[in-house]
């Protein structure tokens, strides 16, 4: 099938859309990919909903701001779809829709993604699979990370035999380890770009640390770094997941921007190194994707700690669209009833499929 996958990450830069030819087991080919950025006004609407979600925390009626944010999410997804469909010259057979995460509380079986899958199905005139975290959460899993099955398919397409690790550096970092026996282990390692972005944005210095220039000019605060690494997330073993807002940032107010960026960059690299130490085997290669792979300071810090790290782009993949492609792949798996999550990736008791299928009821626009 030709499947359209979407990812709108917690960095709030916009919506990634990518087309993949797949049956949910193998990747036959890649179609166009496109980032549809949020405008400043749209981003502010989604940021307001995110702040309200954190205050709400899943108790009582949902915040009124969710409705306006869902309207924005729909519009930006449609902009992205129109672009990739125009580039491909054909409509997708199926759509994998993730939505915009505003809250993730797996210990309470709660993960909130904004977006109207039914409206999207009608607008695109295609089957849409959404809610791919929910079955896992209800079965006692973490609901994240979702992408390991796709990372394994990419490794197979590239002919990469284990042990190998895929590291996604989005707002949060997650690792997929593929063992020499083909077994999968996955979990969120800690923060990636999210905390750095927050500090840079709070100082009015841009959306992110472009090229790692702030971190390169700063000094790591060893005391703060030790406190961050003492977080309970790093004491737990087995599958585990995070919300990008799980770590405090009040300490950064007393720091120079450069020192805060340097400290948080080291925090990301050190937390990945802790994760690496817990893996069943030492990966012979780390494949790095997501926005963080464009930060040379972070990449060097990872190489210093992990050894051989190559970006997905260096291997002929698309670093910026791996997660969107993964949603397409998982939608195809869901349609066929294949597992999306596994005991060693989310902590669910047995391999589990998931997702809700939405059928179009209207003529597509």
How would you describe what is shown here?
This protein is of the alpha/beta class and 365 residues long. It has 2 domains: 2-145 and 320-358, 2-Layer Sandwich (Nucleotidyltransferase, domain 5); 157-319, ATPase, nucleotide binding domain (Nucleotidyltransferase, domain 5, 2-Layer Sandwich). Helix content is 38%, strand content 21%. The chain contains 12 helices and 13 strands. The protein has helices at 40-56, 65-88, 117-124, 134-138, 148-158, 194-202, 213-217, 222-229, 257-277, 296-306, 322-335, 343-346, and strands spanning 2-7, 14-22, 27-37, 94-96, 100-105, 110-114, 127-130, 164-169, 172-178, 184-191, 286-289, 309-311, 356-358. The chain has a 6-stranded mixed sheet with strand order 3-2-1-4-7-13, with helices on both faces. Strands 10-9-8-11-12 form a 5-stranded mixed sheet, with helices on both faces. Helix 2 (65-88) packs parallel to helix 3 (117-124), helix 6 (194-202) runs antiparallel to helix 9 and helix 8 (222-229) crosses helix 9. The longest helix is centred in the first third of the chain and has 24 residues, at 65-88. 53% of the residues are buried. The mean pLDDT is 94.
What's the short version?
Helix content is 38%, strand content 21%.
